[in-house]
Amino acid sequence: MAVQVMEWGYIDWKHVKTENNPRQNMNIGIVVIEPGRHLAEHVHYGQEQLLYVLQGRGIYYINGERIEPEPGQIFYMEAGSSHEVYNPTDGQIRELLVSNPVYGAEEISIDTLVNLGAPSDDTLYAAVEGVRQQSIDPLNLPLTIYDTAGKTVLQTSCFPDYCTEHCNPLANSGCPCRGMGQSNLSEPWEYRQFVCPYGLTLYQQPIVHENRCIGVIQGGYILLSTMKSEGKTSDRTEELYDTPESTALSIRMLLRRIAEHIVSFCVFSDARRVLEAKERDIDDAQQYSKRLEKNLKAAQNIVTDLRINHHFLFNTLNCMAGMALDKDAEELYDAIIDLSKMFRYTTKTKEQFVPFSHEAAYLKTYLKLQKLRYEDSLQVDIKINAQLDDWLVPFNFLQPIVENAFTHGFDTNNLKRRLSITAQPSGSKVLISIYNNGAVIDYSTLNRINDSLPSGSEHGLSLIYAKLKMRFGPDFSMNVYSDERIGTWIILELPYSYQKEVENDD
Description:
The chain has 506 residues and is α+β, with helices and mostly antiparallel strands. It is built from 13 helices and 23 strands. The strands form 5 sheets. A 6-stranded antiparallel beta sheet has the order 1-2-3-10-5-8. Strands 11, 12, 13, 14, 15 and 16 form a 6-stranded mixed beta sheet that branches. A 5-stranded mixed beta sheet has the order 18-20-21-23-22. β13 and β14 (201-208) form a beta hairpin.
Protein backbone atom coordinates (compact mmCIF):
# COMPACT_ATOMS: atom_id res chain seq x y z
CA MET A 1 0.00 0.00 0.00
CA ALA A 2 1.03 3.66 -0.43
CA VAL A 3 2.94 5.75 2.10
CA GLN A 4 1.64 9.33 2.20
CA VAL A 5 4.25 11.85 3.38
CA MET A 6 2.95 14.87 5.30
CA GLU A 7 4.64 17.89 6.92
CA TRP A 8 4.20 16.32 10.35
CA GLY A 9 5.17 12.74 9.43
CA TYR A 10 3.54 10.12 7.25
CA ILE A 11 0.69 7.59 6.96
CA ASP A 12 1.45 4.01 5.91
CA TRP A 13 -1.88 2.91 4.39
CA LYS A 14 -2.71 -0.80 4.80
CA HIS A 15 -6.19 -0.72 3.26
CA VAL A 16 -7.54 2.23 1.27
CA LYS A 17 -10.96 2.73 -0.27
CA THR A 18 -11.06 3.88 -3.88
CA GLU A 19 -13.42 6.31 -5.54
CA ASN A 20 -14.17 3.73 -8.25
CA ASN A 21 -15.37 1.29 -5.59
CA PRO A 22 -17.28 3.41 -3.05
CA ARG A 23 -18.74 0.35 -1.29
CA GLN A 24 -15.33 -0.37 0.27
CA ASN A 25 -15.57 2.48 2.71
CA MET A 26 -12.92 1.97 5.37
CA ASN A 27 -9.32 3.22 5.46
CA ILE A 28 -6.79 1.42 7.67
CA GLY A 29 -3.28 2.72 8.21
CA ILE A 30 -0.37 3.39 10.57
CA VAL A 31 0.03 7.10 11.44
CA VAL A 32 3.54 8.31 12.36
CA ILE A 33 4.07 11.77 13.90
CA GLU A 34 7.75 12.66 13.90
CA PRO A 35 9.57 14.13 16.95
CA GLY A 36 8.95 17.83 17.51
CA ARG A 37 6.21 17.99 14.87
CA HIS A 38 2.71 19.44 15.13
CA LEU A 39 -0.37 17.90 13.48
CA ALA A 40 -2.43 21.09 13.09
CA GLU A 41 -5.99 21.34 14.34
CA HIS A 42 -8.46 19.98 11.80
CA VAL A 43 -12.04 18.77 11.61
CA HIS A 44 -13.00 15.23 10.60
CA TYR A 45 -15.55 16.26 8.00
CA GLY A 46 -17.77 13.26 7.35
CA GLN A 47 -15.37 10.76 8.93
CA GLU A 48 -15.63 8.86 12.19
CA GLN A 49 -12.30 7.48 13.35
CA LEU A 50 -10.88 4.92 15.74
CA LEU A 51 -7.30 5.57 16.96
CA TYR A 52 -5.22 3.00 18.86
CA VAL A 53 -1.94 4.43 20.22
CA LEU A 54 0.82 1.94 19.44
CA GLN A 55 3.91 3.86 20.53
CA GLY A 56 5.05 7.19 21.97
CA ARG A 57 3.49 9.97 24.00
CA GLY A 58 2.17 13.31 22.89
CA ILE A 59 -0.29 16.06 23.67
CA TYR A 60 -3.69 15.56 22.02
CA TYR A 61 -6.57 17.99 21.75
CA ILE A 62 -9.88 16.32 20.83
CA ASN A 63 -12.80 18.75 20.64
CA GLY A 64 -10.69 21.18 22.70
CA GLU A 65 -10.03 18.70 25.53
CA ARG A 66 -6.36 18.10 26.36
CA ILE A 67 -5.37 14.44 26.61
CA GLU A 68 -1.95 12.83 27.14
CA PRO A 69 -2.57 9.19 26.22
CA GLU A 70 -0.44 6.16 27.00
CA PRO A 71 0.41 3.44 24.46
CA GLY A 72 -2.51 1.00 24.28
CA GLN A 73 -5.17 3.69 24.70
CA ILE A 74 -8.09 3.79 22.24
CA PHE A 75 -9.98 6.86 21.02
CA TYR A 76 -13.23 7.04 19.09
CA MET A 77 -13.90 10.36 17.35
CA GLU A 78 -17.30 10.90 15.77
CA ALA A 79 -17.73 12.81 12.52
CA GLY A 80 -17.27 16.55 12.97
CA SER A 81 -14.73 16.19 15.82
CA SER A 82 -11.72 18.52 15.96
CA HIS A 83 -8.30 16.91 16.37
CA GLU A 84 -4.79 18.25 17.05
CA VAL A 85 -1.55 16.58 18.17
CA TYR A 86 1.83 17.87 19.43
CA ASN A 87 4.85 15.58 19.68
CA PRO A 88 7.24 17.33 22.11
CA THR A 89 9.39 14.21 22.59
CA ASP A 90 12.44 12.91 20.73
CA GLY A 91 10.62 9.73 19.66
CA GLN A 92 7.91 8.93 17.13
CA ILE A 93 4.19 8.68 17.91
CA ARG A 94 2.66 5.69 16.10
CA GLU A 95 -1.09 5.04 15.86
CA LEU A 96 -3.38 2.48 14.25
CA LEU A 97 -6.03 4.45 12.35
CA VAL A 98 -9.40 3.07 11.18
CA SER A 99 -11.62 5.68 9.51
CA ASN A 100 -15.05 5.35 7.96
CA PRO A 101 -17.16 7.89 6.06
CA VAL A 102 -20.44 8.88 7.68
CA TYR A 103 -23.05 9.77 5.11
CA GLY A 104 -25.43 11.81 7.24
CA ALA A 105 -28.87 10.36 7.82
CA GLU A 106 -29.16 6.63 8.32
CA GLU A 107 -32.62 6.80 6.80
CA ILE A 108 -35.32 9.17 5.64
CA SER A 109 -38.31 8.13 7.68
CA ILE A 110 -41.69 7.23 6.26
CA ASP A 111 -43.25 10.15 8.15
CA THR A 112 -40.82 12.55 6.48
CA LEU A 113 -41.59 11.19 3.02
CA VAL A 114 -45.34 11.05 3.47
CA ASN A 115 -45.67 14.46 5.13
CA LEU A 116 -43.87 16.45 2.47
CA GLY A 117 -46.62 19.03 2.34
CA ALA A 118 -48.04 20.39 -0.88
CA PRO A 119 -45.78 19.82 -3.91
CA SER A 120 -43.75 22.90 -4.81
CA ASP A 121 -42.62 24.25 -8.14
CA ASP A 122 -39.25 24.99 -6.50
CA THR A 123 -38.20 21.33 -6.52
CA LEU A 124 -34.58 21.87 -5.45
CA TYR A 125 -35.48 24.23 -2.59
CA ALA A 126 -38.09 21.81 -1.23
CA ALA A 127 -35.74 18.82 -1.52
CA VAL A 128 -32.83 20.58 0.21
CA GLU A 129 -35.08 21.64 3.07
CA GLY A 130 -36.50 18.11 3.27
CA VAL A 131 -33.12 16.35 3.64
CA ARG A 132 -31.24 19.10 5.47
CA GLN A 133 -31.89 18.05 9.06
CA GLN A 134 -30.95 14.42 8.50
CA SER A 135 -28.43 14.47 5.65
CA ILE A 136 -26.60 17.83 5.79
CA ASP A 137 -26.63 19.46 9.23
CA PRO A 138 -25.12 16.45 11.12
CA LEU A 139 -22.00 16.52 8.90
CA ASN A 140 -20.76 20.00 9.96
CA LEU A 141 -19.40 20.32 6.44
CA PRO A 142 -18.70 23.71 4.78
CA LEU A 143 -20.74 23.79 1.58
CA THR A 144 -22.99 25.91 -0.60
CA ILE A 145 -25.83 24.68 -2.82
CA TYR A 146 -26.66 26.79 -5.89
CA ASP A 147 -29.69 26.62 -8.18
CA THR A 148 -29.55 26.91 -11.96
CA ALA A 149 -29.60 30.72 -11.75
CA GLY A 150 -26.56 30.72 -9.46
CA LYS A 151 -28.62 31.74 -6.43
CA THR A 152 -27.75 30.29 -3.05
CA VAL A 153 -30.22 27.63 -1.93
CA LEU A 154 -28.32 26.70 1.24
CA GLN A 155 -25.01 27.70 2.80
CA THR A 156 -23.75 26.06 5.98
CA SER A 157 -22.04 28.16 8.64
CA CYS A 158 -19.02 25.96 9.45
CA PHE A 159 -16.44 27.49 7.09
CA PRO A 160 -12.76 27.37 8.17
CA ASP A 161 -11.32 30.39 9.99
CA TYR A 162 -8.93 30.78 7.06
CA CYS A 163 -11.91 31.43 4.73
CA THR A 164 -13.51 33.84 7.18
CA GLU A 165 -10.29 35.84 7.57
CA HIS A 166 -9.72 36.19 3.82
CA CYS A 167 -13.18 36.75 2.31
CA ASN A 168 -15.88 35.73 4.86
CA PRO A 169 -18.17 33.79 2.46
CA LEU A 170 -21.13 33.99 4.86
CA ALA A 171 -21.27 37.79 4.72
CA ASN A 172 -19.47 38.64 1.50
CA SER A 173 -21.45 38.34 -1.72
CA GLY A 174 -18.21 39.14 -3.55
CA CYS A 175 -16.39 36.01 -2.38
CA PRO A 176 -14.57 34.75 -5.51
CA CYS A 177 -15.85 31.20 -4.94
CA ARG A 178 -19.54 32.17 -5.08
CA GLY A 179 -19.79 32.61 -8.82
CA MET A 180 -17.93 29.42 -9.63
CA GLY A 181 -20.95 27.24 -8.87
CA GLN A 182 -22.58 28.27 -12.15
CA SER A 183 -19.79 26.69 -14.19
CA ASN A 184 -21.19 23.20 -13.66
CA LEU A 185 -24.73 23.77 -14.97
CA SER A 186 -24.06 22.86 -18.60
CA GLU A 187 -23.40 19.44 -20.08
CA PRO A 188 -21.50 17.27 -19.44
CA TRP A 189 -22.69 17.24 -15.82
CA GLU A 190 -19.77 15.84 -13.87
CA TYR A 191 -17.74 16.35 -10.72
CA ARG A 192 -15.22 19.18 -10.97
CA GLN A 193 -12.35 20.48 -8.83
CA PHE A 194 -10.68 23.89 -8.66
CA VAL A 195 -8.42 25.99 -6.42
CA CYS A 196 -9.62 29.31 -5.02
CA PRO A 197 -7.40 32.44 -5.23
CA TYR A 198 -6.25 31.81 -1.65
CA GLY A 199 -5.04 28.25 -2.29
CA LEU A 200 -7.88 26.10 -0.97
CA THR A 201 -9.27 23.20 -3.01
CA LEU A 202 -13.02 23.17 -3.74
CA TYR A 203 -15.22 20.48 -5.29
CA GLN A 204 -18.40 20.83 -7.35
CA GLN A 205 -20.97 18.03 -7.44
CA PRO A 206 -23.88 18.48 -9.90
CA ILE A 207 -27.41 17.53 -8.83
CA VAL A 208 -28.97 15.77 -11.84
CA HIS A 209 -32.65 14.86 -11.79
CA GLU A 210 -34.41 13.36 -14.82
CA ASN A 211 -31.43 14.10 -17.09
CA ARG A 212 -31.46 17.77 -16.09
CA CYS A 213 -29.02 19.61 -13.83
CA ILE A 214 -31.10 21.37 -11.18
CA GLY A 215 -28.23 22.67 -9.06
CA VAL A 216 -24.66 22.29 -7.81
CA ILE A 217 -23.16 21.44 -4.41
CA GLN A 218 -19.87 23.24 -3.79
CA GLY A 219 -17.73 22.06 -0.87
CA GLY A 220 -14.28 21.09 0.31
CA TYR A 221 -12.41 24.25 1.32
CA ILE A 222 -9.33 22.20 2.24
CA LEU A 223 -5.58 22.46 1.74
CA LEU A 224 -4.06 19.64 -0.31
CA SER A 225 -0.34 18.91 -0.13
CA THR A 226 -0.23 18.73 -3.95
CA MET A 227 -1.32 22.37 -4.13
CA LYS A 228 1.39 23.40 -1.67
CA SER A 229 4.10 21.58 -3.62
CA GLU A 230 3.06 23.42 -6.78
CA GLY A 231 3.24 26.82 -5.08
CA LYS A 232 -0.47 27.59 -5.51
CA THR A 233 -1.11 28.72 -1.93
CA SER A 234 -0.69 31.87 0.13
CA ASP A 235 1.85 32.26 2.93
CA ARG A 236 -0.87 31.84 5.57
CA THR A 237 -1.55 28.25 4.51
CA GLU A 238 1.37 27.09 6.65
CA GLU A 239 -1.10 27.34 9.55
CA LEU A 240 -3.56 24.92 7.92
CA TYR A 241 -3.90 21.17 8.24
CA ASP A 242 -2.29 19.31 5.34
CA THR A 243 -5.30 17.22 4.28
CA PRO A 244 -4.64 13.56 3.36
CA GLU A 245 -6.04 12.39 0.04
CA SER A 246 -8.19 9.83 1.88
CA THR A 247 -9.97 12.67 3.70
CA ALA A 248 -10.40 14.59 0.45
CA LEU A 249 -11.90 11.47 -1.11
CA SER A 250 -14.33 11.13 1.80
CA ILE A 251 -15.48 14.72 1.34
CA ARG A 252 -16.09 14.12 -2.37
CA MET A 253 -18.10 11.00 -1.53
CA LEU A 254 -20.12 12.96 1.03
CA LEU A 255 -21.00 15.63 -1.53
CA ARG A 256 -22.04 12.90 -3.95
CA ARG A 257 -24.18 11.22 -1.28
CA ILE A 258 -25.90 14.51 -0.40
CA ALA A 259 -26.70 14.98 -4.10
CA GLU A 260 -28.13 11.44 -4.20
CA HIS A 261 -30.33 12.16 -1.16
CA ILE A 262 -31.63 15.34 -2.78
CA VAL A 263 -32.39 13.49 -6.02
CA SER A 264 -34.10 10.66 -4.10
CA PHE A 265 -36.27 13.23 -2.36
CA CYS A 266 -37.14 14.77 -5.75
CA VAL A 267 -38.03 11.33 -7.14
CA PHE A 268 -40.30 10.61 -4.19
CA SER A 269 -41.87 14.06 -4.52
CA ASP A 270 -42.50 13.47 -8.23
CA ALA A 271 -44.00 10.08 -7.45
CA ARG A 272 -46.29 11.72 -4.95
CA ARG A 273 -47.45 14.23 -7.57
CA VAL A 274 -48.24 11.38 -9.96
CA LEU A 275 -50.03 9.48 -7.22
CA GLU A 276 -52.12 12.49 -6.24
CA ALA A 277 -53.05 13.09 -9.87
CA LYS A 278 -54.28 9.51 -10.13
CA GLU A 279 -56.11 9.76 -6.83
CA ARG A 280 -58.19 12.61 -8.20
CA ASP A 281 -59.47 10.23 -10.87
CA ILE A 282 -60.49 7.52 -8.41
CA ASP A 283 -64.11 7.60 -7.33
CA ASP A 284 -64.17 4.31 -5.48
CA ALA A 285 -63.02 4.94 -1.89
CA GLN A 286 -62.07 1.31 -1.34
CA GLN A 287 -59.87 1.22 -4.43
CA TYR A 288 -58.24 4.49 -3.35
CA SER A 289 -57.44 3.03 0.09
CA LYS A 290 -55.83 -0.10 -1.37
CA ARG A 291 -53.61 1.86 -3.77
CA LEU A 292 -52.45 4.24 -1.06
CA GLU A 293 -51.64 1.34 1.29
CA LYS A 294 -49.64 -0.41 -1.42
CA ASN A 295 -47.52 2.69 -2.15
CA LEU A 296 -46.87 3.38 1.52
CA LYS A 297 -45.78 -0.22 2.17
CA ALA A 298 -43.48 -0.17 -0.86
CA ALA A 299 -41.87 3.03 0.43
CA GLN A 300 -41.54 1.52 3.90
CA ASN A 301 -39.79 -1.54 2.47
CA ILE A 302 -37.30 0.64 0.57
CA VAL A 303 -36.49 2.79 3.59
CA THR A 304 -36.08 -0.28 5.82
CA ASP A 305 -33.52 -1.78 3.42
CA LEU A 306 -31.50 1.48 3.34
CA ARG A 307 -30.86 1.49 7.10
CA ILE A 308 -27.18 1.29 8.00
CA ASN A 309 -26.23 1.11 11.67
CA HIS A 310 -22.94 2.94 12.17
CA HIS A 311 -23.15 2.38 15.93
CA PHE A 312 -22.93 -1.37 15.24
CA LEU A 313 -19.89 -0.72 13.00
CA PHE A 314 -17.87 1.11 15.62
CA ASN A 315 -18.99 -1.07 18.55
CA THR A 316 -17.55 -3.98 16.57
CA LEU A 317 -14.39 -2.04 15.68
CA ASN A 318 -13.81 -1.24 19.36
CA CYS A 319 -13.98 -4.97 20.05
CA MET A 320 -11.49 -5.59 17.23
CA ALA A 321 -9.09 -2.94 18.51
CA GLY A 322 -9.15 -4.60 21.92
CA MET A 323 -8.20 -7.86 20.26
CA ALA A 324 -5.16 -6.18 18.75
CA LEU A 325 -3.70 -5.81 22.25
CA ASP A 326 -3.24 -9.55 22.71
CA LYS A 327 -3.79 -11.16 19.32
CA ASP A 328 -2.02 -10.83 15.98
CA ALA A 329 -3.10 -8.20 13.46
CA GLU A 330 -4.17 -10.73 10.83
CA GLU A 331 -7.20 -11.79 12.87
CA LEU A 332 -8.17 -8.14 13.33
CA TYR A 333 -7.80 -7.46 9.61
CA ASP A 334 -9.91 -10.52 8.67
CA ALA A 335 -12.64 -9.38 11.06
CA ILE A 336 -12.68 -5.89 9.55
CA ILE A 337 -12.94 -7.38 6.05
CA ASP A 338 -15.91 -9.53 7.21
CA LEU A 339 -17.59 -6.38 8.48
CA SER A 340 -16.99 -4.62 5.16
CA LYS A 341 -18.63 -7.59 3.35
CA MET A 342 -21.79 -7.05 5.40
CA PHE A 343 -21.99 -3.37 4.56
CA ARG A 344 -21.18 -4.03 0.90
CA TYR A 345 -24.10 -6.52 0.72
CA THR A 346 -26.60 -4.15 2.34
CA THR A 347 -25.58 -1.17 0.20
CA LYS A 348 -25.01 -2.71 -3.24
CA THR A 349 -28.15 -4.84 -3.46
CA LYS A 350 -30.84 -3.04 -5.46
CA GLU A 351 -33.27 -5.93 -5.99
CA GLN A 352 -36.22 -6.59 -3.70
CA PHE A 353 -35.57 -10.34 -3.96
CA VAL A 354 -32.28 -12.25 -3.79
CA PRO A 355 -31.28 -15.94 -3.85
CA PHE A 356 -31.55 -17.56 -0.44
CA SER A 357 -27.86 -18.52 -0.66
CA HIS A 358 -26.99 -14.79 -0.57
CA GLU A 359 -29.06 -14.28 2.56
CA ALA A 360 -27.42 -17.31 4.17
CA ALA A 361 -23.91 -16.05 3.33
CA TYR A 362 -24.72 -12.62 4.78
CA LEU A 363 -26.05 -14.29 7.95
CA LYS A 364 -22.91 -16.40 8.36
CA THR A 365 -20.70 -13.31 8.07
CA TYR A 366 -22.80 -11.58 10.75
CA LEU A 367 -22.46 -14.60 13.06
CA LYS A 368 -18.67 -14.66 12.60
CA LEU A 369 -18.60 -11.12 13.99
CA GLN A 370 -20.79 -12.13 16.92
CA LYS A 371 -18.21 -14.81 17.73
CA LEU A 372 -15.74 -11.96 18.33
CA ARG A 373 -17.94 -10.81 21.17
CA TYR A 374 -18.95 -14.13 22.73
CA GLU A 375 -16.04 -16.36 21.66
CA ASP A 376 -16.44 -19.90 23.05
CA SER A 377 -19.55 -18.98 25.03
CA LEU A 378 -21.54 -18.96 21.76
CA GLN A 379 -22.40 -22.17 19.88
CA VAL A 380 -23.95 -21.78 16.43
CA ASP A 381 -25.50 -24.60 14.35
CA ILE A 382 -26.69 -23.88 10.81
CA LYS A 383 -28.40 -26.48 8.61
CA ILE A 384 -29.67 -25.18 5.27
CA ASN A 385 -30.72 -27.52 2.47
CA ALA A 386 -28.73 -26.83 -0.72
CA GLN A 387 -31.95 -27.15 -2.76
CA LEU A 388 -32.89 -23.70 -1.45
CA ASP A 389 -29.85 -21.88 -2.90
CA ASP A 390 -31.73 -20.38 -5.89
CA TRP A 391 -35.01 -19.80 -4.06
CA LEU A 392 -35.78 -16.08 -4.25
CA VAL A 393 -36.63 -14.40 -0.95
CA PRO A 394 -37.04 -10.79 0.24
CA PHE A 395 -33.72 -8.99 0.63
CA ASN A 396 -32.33 -8.82 4.20
CA PHE A 397 -35.12 -10.68 6.01
CA LEU A 398 -33.17 -13.43 7.78
CA GLN A 399 -30.34 -11.61 9.63
CA PRO A 400 -32.66 -9.19 11.54
CA ILE A 401 -34.58 -12.19 12.92
CA VAL A 402 -31.36 -13.82 14.15
CA GLU A 403 -30.15 -10.48 15.54
CA ASN A 404 -33.32 -10.44 17.67
CA ALA A 405 -31.86 -13.37 19.65
CA PHE A 406 -28.77 -11.35 20.58
CA THR A 407 -30.78 -8.22 21.37
CA HIS A 408 -33.46 -9.82 23.55
CA GLY A 409 -32.43 -13.42 24.18
CA PHE A 410 -28.77 -13.26 25.15
CA ASP A 411 -28.60 -9.83 26.82
CA THR A 412 -28.93 -11.28 30.34
CA ASN A 413 -27.79 -14.86 29.70
CA ASN A 414 -24.37 -15.64 31.16
CA LEU A 415 -24.51 -19.37 30.42
CA LYS A 416 -23.46 -21.22 27.27
CA ARG A 417 -25.37 -19.49 24.49
CA ARG A 418 -26.77 -21.75 21.78
CA LEU A 419 -28.21 -20.66 18.46
CA SER A 420 -29.66 -22.99 15.84
CA ILE A 421 -30.88 -22.05 12.34
CA THR A 422 -32.45 -24.63 10.02
CA ALA A 423 -34.12 -24.28 6.62
CA GLN A 424 -35.66 -27.28 4.86
CA PRO A 425 -38.17 -27.72 2.02
CA SER A 426 -41.32 -29.61 2.99
CA GLY A 427 -43.58 -30.26 0.03
CA SER A 428 -44.80 -26.91 -1.30
CA LYS A 429 -43.45 -25.08 1.76
CA VAL A 430 -40.11 -24.14 3.28
CA LEU A 431 -39.76 -24.41 7.05
CA ILE A 432 -37.27 -22.05 8.70
CA SER A 433 -36.53 -22.31 12.42
CA ILE A 434 -34.40 -19.88 14.49
CA TYR A 435 -33.84 -21.15 18.05
CA ASN A 436 -31.93 -19.65 20.99
CA ASN A 437 -31.57 -20.79 24.59
CA GLY A 438 -31.60 -17.23 25.96
CA ALA A 439 -34.19 -15.45 28.07
CA VAL A 440 -37.67 -16.96 27.77
CA ILE A 441 -40.81 -14.94 27.12
CA ASP A 442 -43.75 -15.06 29.50
CA TYR A 443 -47.16 -16.13 28.20
CA SER A 444 -48.83 -12.71 28.07
CA THR A 445 -45.83 -11.05 26.37
CA LEU A 446 -45.62 -13.91 23.87
CA ASN A 447 -49.29 -13.46 22.91
CA ARG A 448 -48.81 -9.72 22.55
CA ILE A 449 -45.81 -10.21 20.25
CA ASN A 450 -47.60 -12.70 17.99
CA ASP A 451 -50.74 -10.53 17.87
CA SER A 452 -48.70 -7.44 16.93
CA LEU A 453 -46.77 -9.05 14.05
CA PRO A 454 -49.44 -8.29 11.39
CA SER A 455 -50.13 -4.81 12.80
CA GLY A 456 -47.38 -3.00 10.88
CA SER A 457 -45.84 -1.50 14.04
CA GLU A 458 -42.26 -0.23 14.04
CA HIS A 459 -40.55 -3.06 15.96
CA GLY A 460 -38.14 -5.27 14.00
CA LEU A 461 -40.13 -8.52 13.75
CA SER A 462 -43.22 -6.63 12.58
CA LEU A 463 -41.18 -5.03 9.77
CA ILE A 464 -39.96 -8.47 8.67
CA TYR A 465 -43.55 -9.76 8.77
CA ALA A 466 -44.63 -6.88 6.51
CA LYS A 467 -41.78 -7.63 4.10
CA LEU A 468 -42.76 -11.32 3.87
CA LYS A 469 -46.41 -10.40 3.37
CA MET A 470 -45.48 -8.16 0.42
CA ARG A 471 -43.63 -11.10 -1.18
CA PHE A 472 -45.91 -14.02 -0.34
CA GLY A 473 -49.29 -12.40 0.36
CA PRO A 474 -51.36 -14.33 2.92
CA ASP A 475 -49.73 -17.66 2.01
CA PHE A 476 -47.15 -17.75 4.83
CA SER A 477 -46.93 -17.87 8.62
CA MET A 478 -44.53 -16.40 11.20
CA ASN A 479 -44.85 -17.27 14.89
CA VAL A 480 -42.83 -16.94 18.08
CA TYR A 481 -42.74 -19.80 20.62
CA SER A 482 -41.08 -19.90 24.04
CA ASP A 483 -40.61 -22.65 26.64
CA GLU A 484 -39.12 -21.83 30.04
CA ARG A 485 -37.28 -25.16 30.11
CA ILE A 486 -35.73 -24.94 26.63
CA GLY A 487 -35.70 -21.49 25.03
CA THR A 488 -37.34 -19.50 22.24
CA TRP A 489 -38.11 -20.25 18.57
CA ILE A 490 -39.21 -18.15 15.64
CA ILE A 491 -40.82 -20.41 13.04
CA LEU A 492 -41.44 -19.36 9.43
CA GLU A 493 -43.51 -21.36 6.95
CA LEU A 494 -43.08 -19.89 3.46
CA PRO A 495 -44.22 -20.95 -0.03
CA TYR A 496 -41.51 -22.78 -1.96
CA SER A 497 -41.33 -21.20 -5.43
CA TYR A 498 -38.60 -21.78 -7.96
CA GLN A 499 -36.67 -18.88 -9.48
CA LYS A 500 -38.42 -18.82 -12.85
CA GLU A 501 -41.83 -18.80 -11.21
CA VAL A 502 -40.90 -15.82 -9.04
CA GLU A 503 -39.42 -13.90 -11.97
CA ASN A 504 -42.63 -14.39 -13.95
CA ASP A 505 -44.65 -13.11 -11.00
CA ASP A 506 -42.50 -9.98 -10.82
